[in-house]
Design goal:
Blueprint lengths: L3 H18 L4 H27 L3 H28 L9 H11 L3 H29 L3 H29 L3
Helix pairs in contact: 2-3, 2-4, 2-5, 3-6, 4-5, 5-6
Length: 170
């Protein structure tokens, strides 16, 4: 009986690091929640641009953003569930406010406001995601961040290109 107890302790210690690494730190939780809200906002804003954009580049970019953020969120949600992280049901207040601005604009005014605000939003998303990729602790969350970075950077390039096309700059 005495020889089983030390073996059990050794076994528990052997698996303990794996258990710790599979838990979401406050940083990981915050990033999952913010990334989910970003995805929700981008799906809505991208869909709106795909339908309401004046310029072809805005409509095309909007469609790409909506599609790509839906795919990112489809990978994020199961990881959050696995780690027990509760995700918000809607975009944050600023993202909702931005959508209202978009809904109140039409034609080139819509295109310019959308491209500018989306480019700014993607800069922030890239910064948040880079921080998670470098400082996160849960491997599966860090992996999501690493996978999201090239997509976010591609979006920023598309938005910059669209902004140049419609008015000479973002």
């Amino acid at each position: 009986m005495k020889s089983i107890a030390p073996a059990a302790v050794l076994l528990a210690l052997w698996f303990a690091p794996a258990v710790v690494l599979s838990q979401a730190s406050p940083q990981d939780q915050k990033w999952l929640q913010q990334a989910h809200q970003i995805n929700l906002a981008e799906i809505a804003a991208g869909s709106l641009a795909a339908q309401s954009g004046h310029a072809d580049s805005i409509r095309t970019t909007g469609h790409t953003l909506a599609s790509d953020h839906a795919a990112l969120d489809a990978r994020l949600q199961p990881v959050a569930k696995q780690l027990g992280v509760k995700l918000p049901d809607a975009p944050n207040a600023q993202q909702k406010s931005d959508m209202q601005v978009f809904r109140n604009k039409h034609g080139m005014d819509f295109d310019q406001a959308w491209a500018h605000m989306e480019a700014d939003g993607h800069i922030q998303a890239i910064e948040l995601t880079t921080f998670e990729a470098n400082k996160g602790t849960a491997p599966q969350v860090k992996q999501l961040a690493v996978q999201a970075l090239p997509v976010l950077k591609k979006h920023y390039q598309l938005l910059t290109h669209a902004a140049v096309e419609i008015h000479g700059g973002p």
